[in-house]
Write a structure and sequence with these properties.
Elements: H1 4-9, H2 13-26, H3 28-38, E1 41-43, E2 48-50, H4 53-61, E3 66-67, H5 72-75, H6 86-98, H7 104-122, E4 125-127, H8 128-133, H9 135-143, H10 152-168, H11 180-210, H12 218-228, H13 235-249, H14 251-265, H15 268-279, H16 287-296, E5 303-307, E6 311-313, E7 321-323, E8 328-331, H17 333-336, H18 371-386, E9 392-393, E10 408-410
Parallel strand pairs: 2-8
Antiparallel strand pairs: 1-2, 3-5, 4-10, 5-8, 6-7, 9-10
Length: 412
């Protein structure tokens, strides 16, 4: 049958990126191992891929050279679609401040209680995506972030279509959709609905705060900061950033939880150890298993950037390659997390690695805003799931798309 790269070279240019994308999602570890070894920079007409740790790190670190310009048509006036700008730094700093790290232990406790309650209410079976992996972050958004008086199904829809359009409906993804324009339309319709809800929510919360209500949720913190006039952060910016809290919290959490659990369920020995950790009194004992599982099956196998000036990757290496301005570059971080230059015994499942030398939450200027919350919410949902007696899960159903849509579970 020949190697992956033999098949790549024998494929017409117009079909090469679809072939490679299929391998990234369908046969990632053997394909990416060959890529790292034989052709660390792989060029297709649509995208150029970087497979080694150093090159991926450089792409994500050098925001001056590799920008997030492709975010802009999807995210509009949100600071995350900007790089080194005043708005980016100011609003990211504000959001990190109101997502207070001192709240993290309490958030983990909340997630544990909510996940346990949802599983207990389900009896001995559940459709886990709607009922748990999306259900828990949706509850957190309502109860902790302050998106009250809301319909969870609508919150989920708004988050879903923004995530799908921004991260899975880029120009180089067009062949994966029957109608890419329909995805854009769904996101635009979702945003109109979300904006109407957020305007009403903010008006209600403003009135409550003026009457002396003692709220400490994220929406209230943003409004109090805005009303102080201490920084350039008006009500429009409040609305945009509250929407960002919702969009960033739900679908990515669900995807990561499903991938971590699915990986563990396919590794019986590691599953047994992870389950013993989950049953222990130390809530964090399971965390290493979860993040190692996500190294084997990350929610995002790559991060995309646009080259803003002619440059090279693999500088001074035998494979050094020119990258022209305007090139869409994929930092294939799934591959980077198996690079032996960065990981000891990368093919081994080692729960002592931790998330710090991984790309689970991105890297550089655009590292996940909610990393601290994700680092407890994702493993805690997994932990509560592993505490179920005799958990049996069917195949994850992605319904032909990029994210988990349903997953049937049963237990004793």
């Amino acid at each position: 049958m020949g190697s992956y790269l033999d098949r790549f070279d024998a494929t017409p240019a117009a079909q090469r990126w679809p072939l490679v994308r299929g391998w990234i999602f369908g046969e990632p570890l053997p394909f990416l191992a060959e890529l790292r070894q034989e052709r660390p920079i792989l060029v297709t007409p649509e995208v150029t891929l970087a497979a080694r740790f150093d090159d991926c790190s450089e792409i994500l670190r050098r925001h001056d050279t590799f920008s997030v310009a492709l975010y802009k048509p999807k995210q509009g006036d949100y600071w995350m679609d900007e790089d080194d700008t005043a708005v980016h730094w100011r609003e990211k700093s504000i959001m990190r401040a109101i997502l207070d790290r001192e709240d993290i232990p309490a958030i983990r406790s909340y997630v544990a209680d909510k996940a346990a309650a949802l599983l207990a209410a389900a009896g001995n079976s559940i459709e886990a995506v709607a009922g748990l992996t999306r259900g828990v972050p949706l509850a957190l958004v309502q109860d902790w972030f302050g998106l009250t008086h809301s319909d969870p199904a609508k919150l989920c829809k708004w988050s879903y279509w923004n995530q799908i359009d921004a991260f899975w409906n880029q120009p180089f993804d067009a062949f994966t959709w029957a109608d890419p324009g329909k995805v854009v339309s769904e996101r635009e319709a979702a945003n109109l609905e979300m904006a109407a809800y957020l305007v009403g929510l903010v008006a209600l919360r403003e009135g409550e705060l003026k009457l002396g209500a003692d709220h400490h949720d994220s929406v209230s913190r943003l409004l109090e900061l805005s009303s102080s006039k201490a920084v350039n952060f008006d009500l429009k910016r409040v609305l945009i950033n509250v929407g960002g809290l919702l969009i960033g919290a739900v679908e990515t959490t669900s995807h990561a939880v499903v991938n971590a659990l699915d990986t563990l369920l396919q590794r019986p020995d590691d599953l047994a150890k992870a389950r013993a950790a989950a049953l222990s009194d130390d809530a964090a004992a399971v965390d290493g298993y979860v993040f190692e599982a996500l190294r084997f099956k990350p929610a995002f196998p790559y991060f995309f950037r646009v080259c803003e000036q002619d440059t090279v990757l693999g500088r001074s290496e035998a494979y050094e390659a020119p990258i022209a301005k305007g090139t869409t570059v994929l930092a294939v971080t799934h591959s980077a997390m198996f690079d032996p230059k960065a990981m000891s015994n990368p093919d081994d499942f080692d729960p002592t690695r931790g998330p710090d030398n991984q790309f689970t939450f991105g890297y550089g200027l655009h590292e996940c805003l909610g990393r601290a919350i994700g680092e407890v919410m994702i493993p805690e949902i997994v932990r509560q799931s592993l505490r179920l007696n005799g958990l049996v899960a069917g195949p994850v159903d992605r319904q032909g798309g990029p994210v988990p849509e349903s997953w049937q579970w049963q237990w004793h």
